[in-house]
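Notes to self after the call with IL:
- keep both proteins in one doc
- input above output, always
- annotate only the second one for now

Protein 1:
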Amino acid sequence: MRRFYSKLLLFGEYTIIKGSSALAIPYERYSGSWTFDGKNSLSNEILKKWCEFLSHSDNEIGVDIDAFRQDISNGLQFNSNIPQGYGVGSSGALVAALLHEYVTKNKDIYNEKKDVFFLKNAFKILEVFFHGKGSGTDPLVCYLNQPILFEASGKIQKINSFNLQSNDKNKTCFLINTLIPRKTEPLVKVFLEKCKNESFNLACKNELAIHNNNAIDALIQNNNIDFFKAIHLISALQYEQFQPMIPNKIKSIWKNGLNSNHYQLKLCGAGGGGFVLGFSSDWQKTKTELSDFDLQVVFNL
């Protein structure tokens, strides 16, 4: 069966609420697929609960509930190595897999035309079970398996020209594993509370959102000079304004990166734990400076 990769939100965390664009990419280090072999798999009991939830919902998406329920009774599980509570789309991959395998209505639109708005709306409904309220963005990236730009205007654009593997292996996008699972909802509440402060709200809307958009534009255009300028501004502003979202064990190296300029750190999704995103202009020096941490290379710039 098809494997569905995890996703990374490179840019747009929080600022998308303030009118910025967002850019997400598939991350092939982690993935999941349906299986009847229970090793390292999502509990069959969770799938039972999801199936019952869907069976009592308006089935406008066209889920084949009978087939899903029958396979669950035969031991169906979702075999995944995507870490949960890390913001890399563990539920997004699962929702994408459900649509691929068990949705029969509108199959031509889902699997052939791949209308992004139609898909996003379907995923938004299917992921309600996991989040209470869905956006559909994570499953969309996992399903299409390509970078997706969510523009502030509401336009959704598949990015075909985005270079995820350049020849310059010294300029790198990487992840730091904080080893701290977290939940998104409490962190979003902290952000919304902070937005009641006028100076914080203006910093997000008039500074961070602009730097975010500039970073996205520069990355898509493979303009490393402007990209690293924007990343430095994002990192500095997040360090100043988003302290509650930065794990304590990361704060010193975050500051060191700003000072040395060998690398810059930023939030990966909601922050608070999970992964921290890094962008290095000198990977050899960065690896030495961060030798005490678990680093994962995502792509070369």
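Protein 2 (the one to annotate):
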Amino acid sequence: MAGTARKTVAITGATGFVGGRMLDLMVREGYEARALTRRRQDDRPGVQWVPGALDSKDSLTRLCAGADMVLHIAGVVNAPDRAGFESGNVSGTLALVEAAKQAGTRRFLHVSSLAATQPKLSIYGETKAKAEKIVATSGLDWTIVRPPAVYGPGDGEFLDLFKMARLGFVTMPPDADGRLSVIHVEDLCRALLALLPEDEDLTAQIFEVDDGEPGGWTQVGFAKAIGTAMGKRISAVGIPKPLLRFGALADRMVRRDKAKLTQDRVNYFCHDDWTIDPQRRLPSQLWQPRIKTPDGLRDTVNWYRQNDWL
């Protein structure tokens, strides 16, 4: 951004898996970041931490004041009840949109999820779809990005699959022919970076990004790719839906609010097509994925091992 004034980005979710990587990338690229945080953070160049949360109007006002654009990454992926999803994904998005409008910040880049394309399958998907509608009717200069499953060094969501692969198996949905798209966190962040500036060709559009694998991955193929990254030959084990529901109950009893497999995720997990729509890809001249998934999975395994996560 040499020769131009440094743009200020108001970012939510900057202390999370995707947001933390995005914060690093924005600062490296010359943006000033104003980042919302619930907990005290260490000072760092190019970042102004704004204490607060999405349910605090005052903190959102401070976050957006003087910002050139808003990047909304924060969201609730897992919650024990509907209220948790509604508060984080719907009310939080609405409050941020209102704060941006009040501050006169026109550009609004919203990170949604492929789950929003199937709102009847889960409360998570339903609330992400509601958030998209809030953004799309905001009157702001908006763009929405729907990532598929995001993986990479530092990710905790896929960790259980790698731990299973270490034992020689990976559990899967009951439909062995099911497909999914995935993306490495670094590629997702580069896509978001490409979408930050105002561009009338990108306004009022919804994009979907992935690793570039044609037609996505089969569930079995992706499970085996995790095994290969772990240096293991694995068996892909399909789990019947009733057993998954029982597993969700057990996970809730053991890990309580930190359970990874929840009742809300069972229907989502069992859906047979979580691939992106090729018609919604970003223009290739603007962005293309760089990281092949087998390479990205190996990097992720190396990080897990170096940090004793496995």
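Annotation: Residues 8-146 form a domain with the Rossmann fold fold (CATH 3.40.50.720). The chain has a mean pLDDT of 92.
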